[in-house]
From TrEMBL:
<feature type="binding site">
    <location>
        <position position="160"/>
    </location>
    <ligand>
        <name>NAD(+)</name>
    </ligand>
</feature>
<dbReference type="InterPro" id="IPR008927">
    <property type="entry name" value="6-PGluconate_DH-like_C_sf"/>
</dbReference>
<dbReference type="InterPro" id="IPR006108">
    <property type="entry name" value="3HC_DH_C"/>
</dbReference>
<feature type="site" description="Important for catalytic activity">
    <location>
        <position position="157"/>
    </location>
</feature>
<feature type="domain" description="3-hydroxyacyl-CoA dehydrogenase C-terminal">
    <location>
        <begin position="203"/>
        <end position="299"/>
    </location>
</feature>
<feature type="binding site">
    <location>
        <position position="50"/>
    </location>
    <ligand>
        <name>CoA</name>
    </ligand>
</feature>
<keyword id="KW-0560">Oxidoreductase</keyword>
<dbReference type="GO" id="GO:0016616">
    <property type="term" value="F:oxidoreductase activity, acting on the CH-OH group of donors, NAD or NADP as acceptor"/>
</dbReference>
<feature type="binding site">
    <location>
        <position position="136"/>
    </location>
    <ligand>
        <name>CoA</name>
    </ligand>
</feature>
<protein>
    <recommendedName>
        <fullName>3-hydroxybutyryl-CoA dehydrogenase</fullName>
    </recommendedName>
</protein>
<comment type="similarity">
    <text>Belongs to the 3-hydroxyacyl-CoA dehydrogenase family.</text>
</comment>
<dbReference type="GO" id="GO:0070403">
    <property type="term" value="F:NAD+ binding"/>
</dbReference>
<dbReference type="InterPro" id="IPR022694">
    <property type="entry name" value="3-OHacyl-CoA_DH"/>
</dbReference>
<keyword id="KW-0520">NAD</keyword>
<feature type="binding site">
    <location>
        <position position="291"/>
    </location>
    <ligand>
        <name>NAD(+)</name>
    </ligand>
</feature>
<dbReference type="Pfam" id="PF02737">
    <property type="entry name" value="3HCDH_N"/>
</dbReference>
<comment type="similarity">
    <text>In the central section; belongs to the 3-hydroxyacyl-CoA dehydrogenase family.</text>
</comment>
């Protein structure tokens, strides 16, 4: 398998832009693709300001393994940021990803849409390229079946936000080769990540455990056990989590949470995974979380017209 020098990332949303940032700041050339041109320009802004924050906090300096004086620090600050931004190229044309050694897909969590993309990627990617999915829950084996290279298809599940969270969960499909696994693990480690390996069953490791907890938090709210603030505060302070499950759901995206619950419900065939009706209703209402400005909580500026939530909520 060829050395990884160029990474393609499909989907420039919150996950794809973070994955592209990781690749660019770790010295790889990156093609970032999105069907939506606005998403690409939002991603460039988000990546640039995230690198600024990282560098100013000294995170990137850790990569340089060198104690620095202030002037050197400032010089390298600009070097690292400019080098990463130079390595990042944006496109809406799939053909541009033909030079990538690995393509990481981070588009909408829909099996049909992802399968179509994998089929198209299989047609344009070089024969040695790995096709990886950042899916939260969809079967890697089924995505691989849309291609003629199932041994080179793998799950590379970054956590949100990718530049900060330590874990990458690697999922082996039924036909994923050892060579593909080793190369993908090595790439995650190059990004400074800890890896775990999961077999290909619905939800893998992290979401199999995390999403039912989030779903249960929605049930707790839905049945009036407590307010959203008390549910989050209870779990935050009572179980030492950095944020409560409802806040976390808003960060992840309620649409993503709902999709994962549906996959768990269908894939594991147990009614305990049925999505909470309140979660379904929020998604139906377009309350998708932070990315939409409103989810369980309202993140919009006070100047905007406030919504009147139902008394129960
Ligand atoms: N949000 C999270 O916390 C999280 C964590 C881990 C994994 N994931 C997974 O990562 C993936 C992306 O999630 P996200 O939160 O970044 O979503 P997002 O909605 O922020 O971004 C998705 C992007 O994909 C683009 N897109 C959709 N279909 C496309 C297509 N066919 N071709 C090109 N671009 C397309 C959209 O325009 C959008 O910009 C999903 O599979 C999700 O399950 C999400």
């Amino acid at each position: 398998m060829a050395e990884i020098k160029c990474v393609g990332v499909v989907g420039a949303g919150q996950m794809g832009s973070g994955i592209a940032q990781l690749a660019a700041t770790n010295g790889l050339d990156v093609w970032l693709l999105d069907a939506d041109r606005d998403a690409l320009s939002r991603a460039t802004g988000a990546i640039s300001s995230s690198i600024n924050r990282f560098v100013s906090k000294g995170h990137v300096l850790r990569l340089l393994h060198d104690p620095l004086e202030t002037l050197e620090f400032i010089f390298i600050f600009f070097e690292v940021r400019d080098d990463a931004m130079r390595r990042l190229r944006l496109t809406s044309n799939l053909q541009d990803l033909c030079s990538a050694d690995i393509i990481v897909e981070a588009i909408v969590e829909s099996e049909d849409v992802k399968k179509k993309l994998f089929k198209d990627l299989d047609g344009i990617a070089k024969s040695s390229a790995i096709l990886a999915s950042n899916t939260s829950s969809i079967s890697i084996t089924r995505l691989a079946s849309a291609t003629k290279r199932p041994s080179q298809v793998i799950g590379m599940h970054f956590m949100n936000p990718p530049p900060i969270m330590k874990l990458v969960e690697i999922i082996r499909g039924a036909d994923t080769s050892e060579e593909t696994f080793v190369a993908t693990k090595a790439l995650a480690e190059r990004f400074g990540k800890t890896t775990v390996c999961s077999q290909d069953y619905a939800g893998f490791i992290v979401n199999r455990i995390l999403m039912p907890m989030i779903n249960e938090a929605f049930h707790t709210l839905y049945t009036g056990v407590a307010t959203k603030e008390d549910i989050d505060s209870g779990m935050k302070h009572g179980t030492n989590q950095p944020m409560g499950p409802l806040e976390l759901a808003d960060l992840i995206g309620l649409d993503v949470c709902l999709s994962v619950m549906k996959v768990l419900h269908e894939g594991l065939g147990d009614s305990k995974y049925a999505p909470c009706p309140l979660l379904v209703q929020y998604v139906d209402a377009g309350r998708l979380g932070r990315k939409r400005g409103i989810g369980v909580y309202d993140y919009r500026k006070a100047t905007q017209k406030p919504i009147t939530p139902s008394p129960r909520l």
